[in-house]
Amino acid sequence: MGLKKLLQRTRYHSWNFKASTPAEVAEFYDQYNRVIAQFYGGNMHYGYWDGPDDDSSIEVAAARLTEIMIDKLRIKPGDRVLDLGCGPGKPAVQMAKTTGAQVVGVSISSKDVELAGFRAEALNLQDQLSFQVADANDLPFEPDSFDAVLALESIVHMEDRAHVLRQIARVLKPGGRVALTDFIQRGPISDDEDEQRALVEMLKAWRAAPLVEIEDYVEFAQHAGLILDETIDITQQTKYTFPYTYAAMRDQLERGAKLPPELAAILADTTAEDWKIDESVDPAEGVVIVVAHKPDQRR
C-alpha cells in the first residue's frame, strides 16, 4: 500500500469510519430504496451532463449514463447480462429494451428486487428480465454464465473491490466484458478536519466504502484475471448530480418523507448554496467508468 493510500485510510479511521457490511447495505436499501429512487428520477445512480449549459433533468441525465455504460459492454441481442446491484431495475429495463439482451439483475436488498420485479411485470418484460437477491461477494452463478456484467454505482459499497472483480471474472464467459462506475479520490486529501469529517459523514450516510483511486484498478483487474480496457474520469460530467439531489431530498423532507437520519442531518447543516457547483473548482472526489474484459484463451 502506497504512502498516500495509507494516509487516506488512517484519516478515515481517525473518524471511526469503516465500510458497511453487506447486511447493513441491505438494511439501508430495504428501508429507503423508494425515497432514494425519487432523488434520482427512478434510478439509483448519478446523471451525466454535457456541461454547465446542459439543462437535462436528473432522469434524462441518469438514463444517458446508463446508455453510455450499455455501449461500453457491446451487448448483442440474446446475450445474457448480469446487472450487479440492479436497484429498482430501471437500467436493466433500458438495457433489455435497447439491446434485446436477457438480463439477470441482482441486489443485496430484497426490496430492490421486489421493485425491479414490479417494473418488469408492468412493462411486460418478464421474458427478458429476472431479478433475485444475491451478494456480489459470493455470486450464486456457475462459471462462464454471462456475456457481460454491468455494475452501475454498486461496487462503491464494497471495500474489497478486487474480490468482487474476481467474482465477476468467474461468472463472465471468456471474452466477456464488464463496465462499472466507482467513486474515486482524484486529488490530495484535504488537511482541513471539517472537510475530512464531511467526506466521512457522506460516505457513512450512503453506506459507501472508502474511496479508491483510478490507478488502483490496474491492480484490481490484474488480481481478478481481467484485462483493463479503459478508465474514464467522468467527474466533470456527473458533478451536476449534487444540486439536483439536494433539491429532491429537501423537497422530500418538506413533504414529510422518511429520510435516512444521516442524510437528514447533513441536510440540516447545509443549504442550496453549499451544494451549488463552482466551475472554478476541480473536485477532489469524483466518478470513474472502468471497462475490462475476460481473456479468451480459446483464441
UniProtKB/TrEMBL annotation:
GO terms for biological process: methylation. GO terms for molecular function: methyltransferase activity. It comes from the Bacteria. Pfam families: Methyltransf_31. InterPro entries: Erg6_SMT_methyltransf, MeTfrase_dom, Methyltranfer_dom, SAM-dependent_MTases_sf. Keywords: Methyltransferase, S-adenosyl-L-methionine, Transferase. Residues 32-295 form the Polyketide synthase-like methyltransferase domain. PANTHER family: GERANYL DIPHOSPHATE 2-C-METHYLTRANSFERASE (PTHR44068:SF11), ZGC:194242 (PTHR44068). This is Methyltransferase domain-containing protein. It comes from Actinoplanes sandaracinus.
